[in-house]
Amino acid sequence: MSTLVFCTGGGQQSGIGHVMRCQALAQAAEEQGLDSVFIVNPAARQFILQRHDWTGRVELAVEGENALIEQLLNTADSAEAALIVLDGYGFSEAFIRAISVANAPLLLLDDIRQPGYQYADIICNPAGEPWRDAYAQANPGALLCLGAGFRLLRREFVATNPLPLAQRFSLTVNLGGSDPTGLTLPLLKALCHELPEAPFRVVTGPGFDGASLSALADFIATSECAIQHIHNCQDMADLWVNSRLAVAAAGGSQFELAACHTPSVLLVVAENQRQASNQAASQGWCEVFEATDVVALNALAARVKALWHDDKQLNTMYESAAPVAVRDGAWQLMAAIATWRNRTMETSC
Predict the structure, then answer these.
(1) Coarse DSSP helix, strand, coil percentages of the chain, rounded to the nearest 5 percent
(2) What is the pLDDT of residues 253-277, one digit of tens each?
(3) 155 a known binding residue?
(4) Domains of the chain with bracketed CATH
(5) What's the whole-model pTM score?
(6) Residue 144 to residues 81, 120, 172, 193, 290: CA-CA distances in angstroms?
(7) Is 256 annotated as a binding residue?
(8) Which residues are catalytic?
């Protein structure tokens, strides 16, 4: 049986988005009879062990770039890897170049035209269509899997049907797997002040630190608002399809939100989120709010309040999501890779 070998990671500052989109690809591969091995850092391993639906064997990454290169190449050889997948911003150009000499093709999951992409055999970037010419010029032999069709979502999103907006009731707040900027509690306070009657769901990820969890629990216990707190949610698809409006960090969650037809306010908390977020805003199903520096919480809460009470606008946003929703991007990527490999083998023969 062939194997996909992933090298990725996550943590308090980087969140869990890289790990989760790799998991989406592993789930799609599993349905084609392929195994997966994940080489990850300790924080990502701890998160993975908390998942009830995880697909793939997990190895702890060794420390040091040269040692990690050796570990990854050895794992790929021993597993007779069909594909090596790199996803993360911590890989140097020299690291990517070293991995590119492996016997297995190298897939780079990219957001930022990461230095070293010129050595990848396959480049996947769901927001990367504007960079097609740049990718092709620097790496003319690569398979380019660019555009919305390659959004990598876990199979829970494939199996979930969006509810009609009239059947949704919650105002959901989720600022990613770790919320490194600490916005969850101050944002929730501002929203409760503007919308004391709204039914809130606040979702925190596995990287949310203990002190922040305690402070959040204290506020919820004393607040007069209706607030449900969900920590380390194992079924985000079910949560999103029950959300009338979401306020979320503009990472990989934005693709989940579009798939669930959920009207959203996306907070851009990192520069690598900007291109995809601007594309999403142009589609009409969400609005984008700047949060990379000082966040204007009062203005944000006022805008969320206005949307919450605007049934017409929320319906327009809901309907705008349907034409751009993609749930099977991981399966489309696997199909594109299979076609590319078959053509490559025919050419080599």
Answers:
(1) 45, 20, 35
(2) 999 999 999 999 999 988 878 888 9
(3) no
(4) 3-152+328-348 (3.40.50.11190), 156-324 (3.40.50.2000)
(5) 0.91
(6) 21, 10, 35, 47, 30
(7) yes
(8) 18
